[in-house]
Design brief:
With 106 residues, the protein is of the alpha/beta class. The protein has one domain: Aspartate Aminotransferase, domain 2, CATH 3.40.640. It has 4 helices and 4 strands, in the order E-H-E-H-H-E-E-H. The protein has helices spanning 23-36, 47-51, 60-63, 91-105, and strands at residues 7-11, 39-43, 67-72, 85-88. The protein is globular. The protein starts with 6 loop residues before the first strand and ends with a helix. It holds the Pfam family Aminotran_1_2. InterPro entries: Aminotransferase_I/II_large (IPR004839), NHTrfase_class1_PyrdxlP-BS (IPR004838), PyrdxlP-dep_Trfase (IPR015424), PyrdxlP-dep_Trfase_major (IPR015421).
Length: 106
């Protein structure tokens, strides 16, 4: 981690092990990101496949105020032809992403 770190990217469940991170580990990662003032982008595309086995497993968006969780239908449900995805996070994070998206598309 450097002072220039702006984003930490993780997968939950972890790829390739399939380990689903618990609240304690996500909190530790969040503390590191908070100290750096960084966002955490977490690919949670397989989250629902594993969360049933650990019903209290949180999303990064539940643990960290600058956490961004993304998912889609393509991978986990083998629906490659359907390009639908989503992200969750705090309203501030979502609004910042919308503004950035507008500036890229124009």
């Amino acid at each position: 981690m450097t002072p220039d770190t702006k984003l930490i990217v993780i997968n939950n469940p972890n790829s390739p092990t399939g380990t689903l991170y618990d609240r304690e580990l996500l909190t530790q990662i969040s503390e590191i990101a908070r100290d750096a003032g960084a966002y955490i982008l977490c690919d949670e595309v397989y989250y629902n496949l594993r969360a049933d086995s650990q019903p209290n497993a949180p999303s990064i968006a539940d643990v960290y105020e600058r956490g961004i969780a993304t998912s889609s239908l393509s991978k986990a449900l083998s629906l490659a032809g359907i390009r639908i995805g989503w992200m969750t996070g705090s309203s501030d994070v979502i609004e910042a992403c919308k503004q950035k998206s507008k500036s890229i598309s124009t």
